[in-house]
Amino acid sequence: MTNSSSRIIICPHCTAANRVPTDRLGAGGKCGKCHKPLFAGSPIILTSANFEAHAARSDIPLLVDFWASWCGPCLQMAPAFEAAASQLEPLMRLGKLDTEAQQAIAGRYAIRSIPTLIVIAKGKEIARQSGAMPPSAIVSWARQFAGMGA
């Protein structure tokens, strides 16, 4: 259990849990295990190997872009989602999940149309939005849910 003065942040590289003082989240920080940056200002690639760590163990919400390589609107929104990451970190982690490569996870979230954005906090879906959006709309929509993981 974390207290209000620190947050558990999952490393995007090795999935180690790192306790970071809340007032130092914006300072970046490095993983205590692999020594790589905890935040890079870009979405991480989510797979069956790292999804649960980021979705359930982190104290910051996870914003997931469910997409596929054959989806025109998904490809069109990709740069917008990338741009949103630099504005939303460290309030939340952004991740991209390829629905073709990760069909079990996509099925678990009943993804019926793509692109679909889902905010997950402590393993629970707290918001969902389908359809391509520009960066400002992604940021505005997602900020409503910042801090819900704690």
Quick structural gist:
The protein is α/β, with parallel strands linked by helices.
How is the secondary structure organized here?
Elements: E1 6-10, E2 17-21, E3 44-45, H1 51-57, E4 62-67, H2 72-88, E5 93-98, H3 103-108, E6 116-121, E7 124-130, H4 135-143
Parallel strand pairs: 3-5, 4-5
Antiparallel strand pairs: 1-2, 4-6, 6-7
Helix pairs in contact: 2-4
GO molecular function: metal ion binding; protein-disulfide reductase activity
Domain Thioredoxin: 42-147
Family: Belongs to the thioredoxin family.
What would your notes on this structure say?
The protein is α/β, with parallel strands linked by helices and 150 residues long. It has a domain at 40-143: 3-Layer(aba) Sandwich (Glutaredoxin), CATH 3.40.30.10. Helix content is 26%, strand content 25%. The chain has a five-stranded mixed β-sheet with strand order 3-5-4-6-7, sandwiched between helices. A two-stranded antiparallel ribbon has the order 1-2. It is globular, with a radius of gyration of 14 Å. The relative contact order is 0.18.
Major beta-sheet overview = 5 strands, mixed
- Give the CATH level 1 class of the domain at 40-143: Alpha Beta
**Unreliable segments of 5+ consecutive residues:** none
CATH-level-4 superfamily name of the domain at 40-143: Glutaredoxin
Roughly what fraction of the amino acids lie in strands?
A: 15-25%
Q: What's the count of strands?
A: 7
Helical region count?
4
> Could you please say which CATH topology of the domain at 40-143 applies here?
Glutaredoxin
User: Rg from C-alpha positions?
Assistant: 14 Å
Helix content bin: 25-40%
Strand order of the largest sheet: 3-5-4-6-7
Instruction: Sketch the topology as an H/E string, one letter per element.
Output: EEEHEHEHEEH
Overall pLDDT score: 93
- The secondary structure category is alpha/beta
Keywords: Disulfide bond, Electron transport, Metal-binding, Redox-active center, Transport
Pfam families: Thioredoxin, Zn_ribbon_Thio2
Protein name: Thioredoxin
Family: Belongs to the thioredoxin family.
